[in-house]
Amino acid sequence: MKAVRVVLLAVLLAAGFYYLSNRQPAPAALTHPILAGPAKLDITEAAAPQSFDFEEQNNINVYRKVLPAVVNITSKAVAFDFFYGEVPEQGQGSGFLLDRQGHILTNYHVIAGAQQLEVTLSNRSRFPARVVGVDRAHDLAVIRITAPGLQPATLGDSRNLAVGQKVFAIGNPFGLNGTMTRGIISSIRSVRGRESFIDEAIQTDAAINPGNSGGPLLNSRGEVIGINTLIASNVGQSSGVGFAVPINTAKAVLDDLVTLGRVRRPALGIRSLPIGPEAARRLGLAADSGVLIVQVVPGSAAERAGLRAGNQRVYIGNTPILLGGDLIVAIDGEPIADTSDLAHLMNKHRAGDTVRVTIYRGKQKMEVNVTLGELREQT
């Protein structure tokens, strides 16, 4: 019996050894040192609500102040196609509110040829609009909507702008409503568009794209200093060279646009010749430069004020001119050296304004008050 137990124990020990030596271990759980993580995500959060530095806060303030005054203008027209006949066309631009009565300033090219105009405010409400007046020469137009609770923009002063000054543009480029871009004034220069001439245009590197036309160019106080009008680009998109009509150019004609629907462009009513130092010396004139009156238009502002034209024929080279007329050297204290100076000063006025003209009549210096007439008097 004892021998049986010994044999049985030996068999059990052998079986246990065989089982343990041949048993396959259970597969370990797959882990990856990168994917493995703690049971709870431990992130780092800001200790306080977001704050803005001075520059950021100013950007935000300008945007919030002006956005309610900026509008999107949709123009609809019908064009004729040889194959398809009448084809509807649609264009988009920007503008901004001038007053609570719904007058909106924009570019002439935004509304040119439109048979239907629709204005979308910053709150997405839409209103039909009508054209009140246009100034094609300066690419300006005033349209009007009837809507409650309008918030007009604040018009600034474009007389003393400086290159390097920070500016903002708000508009609807590519139909993206309420877009603000920022830049600086790159230059002040005269530019010519397809059908317009802009004296002292504001050049900026703030991004201006299709759809921005007619929108406001703003200073750091959120005041309108220009109307975004042109871009210089080979691809029709912003290249960092955009131009705006100075707001003072627009302010000079707004009353005419609203009350008359057109601009009473001012004129002295003269034909003139620019005089430089060499010509002044040869002709024995009393000043080194100015604008010599060679003809006074009958019935014009110049004739009414008593300005005199030349009556003595002389030649400069092979060019005949009339001497003896008044030499204009300044208007309202601003020097007039050539006809471009004269045109620049006329752009600041409208028909009916009175200006102080400084002249030399022979050797005598005089000042004459002239009430400007309308340009069509001269033509």
Whole-number count of domains:
3
- Specify the biggest β-sheet: 6 strands, antiparallel, barrel
From N to C, what is the helix and strand string? Answer: HHEEEHEEEEEEEEEHEEHEHEEEEHEEEH
Distance from N terminus to C terminus (CA atoms, Å) equals 146 Å
- Give the CATH class of the largest domain: Mainly Beta
The percent of residues in helical segments reads 10-25%
Write the layout of secondary structure elements.
Blueprint: H1 2-22, H2 54-66, E1 70-81, E2 85-97, E3 103-106, H3 108-111, E4 116-120, E5 126-135, E6 140-144, E7 166-171, E8 179-192, E9 197-204, E10 216-218, E11 224-231, E12 242-246, H4 247-259, E13 266-267, E14 270-275, H5 277-283, E15 290-296, H6 301-305, E16 312-316, E17 319-323, E18 327-331, E19 334-335, H7 339-346, E20 354-361, E21 364-371, E22 373-374, H8 375-378
Antiparallel strand pairs: 1-2, 1-4, 2-3, 3-6, 4-5, 5-6, 7-8, 7-10, 8-9, 9-12, 10-11, 11-12, 13-22, 14-15, 15-18, 16-17, 18-19, 18-20, 20-21
Key terms for this structure?
elongated; six-stranded antiparallel barrel; Thrombin, subunit H; 379 residues; six-stranded antiparallel β-barrel; 20% helix; alpha+beta; Pdz3 Domain
